[in-house]
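Sanity check record (used in CI):
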Amino acid sequence: MSEGEKTRLVAWSRELRSVHDRLRQALAVTRQALADGEPAEPATRDLLLFCHGFCAALTAHHEGEDRHLFPAIAEQYPQLRDTLHYLRQDHSMIAHLLAGLQAAVARGAAPAELHRHLEGVAAIMESHFRYEERQLLTVLETLALDADPYAVLGPL
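Expected output for Hemerythrin HHE cation binding domain-containing protein:
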């Protein structure tokens, strides 16, 4: 294995951690926008902006994993297919929660309701990220996948 190839292979684990950290930060900014909003109207305006960016980034991340990363892992590590199935189920659940959050923001829901939506997304997202990292980071150190990180893990 050449030094360049080794660097590319190891980069997948670093890329995944980096994207997860940026998504965590984006969620924190979104939550802060809600916490800072007084009265509800500024909070809703801020959330429209932050939620759109956060929701789009998280969705693109999961779609890229489903389309590129998980098939490559399944091909090279077939023993992880059950794990990948659970991770895809998480992606579906998170998409449902994001849709609920986006609908609440669009209709100008009260800050308490928006807070509940964000807390639900945060809890599932964090649980998902931790599980994914525990299950896949070692595999990602050796994964042979010649692809653009933005396509595989999202535009963050």
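The radius of gyration is 17 Å. If this sentence no longer matches the regenerated tokens, the check is flagged for review.
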